[in-house]
Amino acid sequence: MAATGFVLITTKASQEIDVFKELSEVKEITELHALFGEYDLIAKVEANDFDHLGTIVTETIRTCEGIVDTKTLAGAKF
Question: According to a count of CB atoms within 10 Å of the terminal CB, is the N or C end of the chain lower?
Fold first, then answer.
């Protein structure tokens, strides 16, 4: 079963562009957008399953230099 997640990302001040560039190289991130407001970036992540999605968030995204916090929303299909 495929899993889709949307990861809201908060970065350190003035590091949005560096984080954006690094995350742009992650193959599972299919969309990445800069935001204004409470969060700095949003990433759409496509994974094989929810375990893989969790691994991408915890081991790839959260370990990126300059990221302060993330909030992951799991997509649902109707």
Answer: C
CA angle 63/7/59 to nearest 5° reads: 25
**Could you confirm whether domain 3-74 is CATH 3.50.50.60?**
no
Cα separation, 38 vs 21, in Å, equals 20
Contact 65, 18 (CB under 8 A): yes
Of all helices (H) and strands (E), which one includes residue 50? helix 50-55
Plot region of 37 (φ>0 → left; ψ -120 to 50 → alpha; else → beta): left
For 4-42, write each residue's pLDDT tens digit: 999 999 999 999 999 999 999 999 999 999 999 999 999
**Domain boundaries of the chain, sorted by first residue:** 3-74
- Closest of 21, 18, 23, 77 to residue 8, by C-alpha: 23
